[in-house]
Design goal:
Helix content is about 40%, strand content about 15%. The chain is of the alpha/beta class and about 240 residues long. The chain has a single domain, classed as Carbamate kinase (3-Layer(aba) Sandwich), CATH 3.40.1160.10. It binds uridine-5'-diphosphate. It is found in: Cytoplasm.
């Protein structure tokens, strides 16, 4: 089965917003369970999976900064939010028998293990899904950048970015009915055209390390597995 796979080892970036469902805030457990089920299906296909989870459903540092507060403190609050989401996703994966571990870039040993590349690789070697929490551990970064960074550290074949829509469009398809979806782009295309899919630092890091980015809809049930198996709808960013 693994021989038919398009990618054997991937990192999936799940934004915090993907977990909130229609609630508009926080974690919708049914949605977390559905995403976990897609991850479980991909595991059963034989794909090694690690995950970077965002925190925007709970907190973003800019929210503090925009109201005159300290950006660094705001970003620390955002990083903590990603840990909450990581624990929720691990719980959803555990319910369906998927062995997953949370590694945080910010040490909190009573709650989860701390990130190091060696520990992450050792867990992956044992067949566990590794969930990276705490972003990069630094303010002024995003979890998209953390995703590109961890993707490079894990030596993945592709970075999957789950979004609200099924790929990268020429304009926001929710605002502009004439927007068209790209099948393939280069990292340079994304950077030069300023396509809003991941922040510039993330795309540049992926380009530097020759990591393809696969942009797909996280809300389309089973799509992750379909793309890994060679089908589905996505935009692939590669050189
Ligand atoms: N954050 C940070 N450093 C990082 C990653 C995240 O300071 O390396 C903070 C930042 O405040 C960000 C918040 O955590 O707004 C949540 O992450 P992000 O906005 O990337 O989450 P997503 O949009 O994917 O839900």
């Amino acid at each position: 089965m693994a021989g038919d796979l398009r990618f054997k080892r991937v990192l999936l970036k799940v934004s915090g917003e993907a977990l909130m469902g229609a609630q508009g805030f926080g974690i919708d457990v049914a949605v977390a369970d559905r995403i976990a089920s897609d991850i479980g299906e991909a595991r059963r296909l034989g794909v090694d999976i690690s995950i970077v989870i965002g925190g925007g459903n709970i907190f973003r540092g800019v929210a503090v900064a925009s109201k005159g507060g300290d950006r660094v403190t705001g970003d620390q609050m955002g990083m903590l939010a990603t840990v909450i989401n990581a624990l929720a996703l691990r719980t959803s994966l555990a319910k369906i028998g998927i062995d997953a571990v949370v590694l945080s870039a910010v040490a909190m040993p009573e709650i989860c293990e701390s990130f190091s590349q060696l520990v992450a690789l050792a867990h992956a070697e044992k067949g566990r899904v590794v969930i990276f929490a705490g972003g990069t551990g630094n303010p002024f970064f995003t979890t998209d950048s953390a995703a590109a960074l961890r993707a490079a550290e894990m030596g993945v074949d592709a970075l999957f970015k789950g979004t609200q829509v099924d790929g990268i469009y020429s304009a926001d398809p929710k605002q502009d009915a004439s927007a068209t979806r790209y099948e393939r782009l280069t990292h340079d295309d994304v950077l030069r055209q300023g396509l809003a899919v991941m922040d510039v630092a993330a795309v540049a890091l992926a380009r530097e390390n020759k990591i393809p980015i696969v942009v797909f809809s996280i809300h389309e049930e089973g799509e992750f597995g379909r793309i890994l198996s060679g089908g589905g709808r996505s935009t692939i960013v590669s050189d």
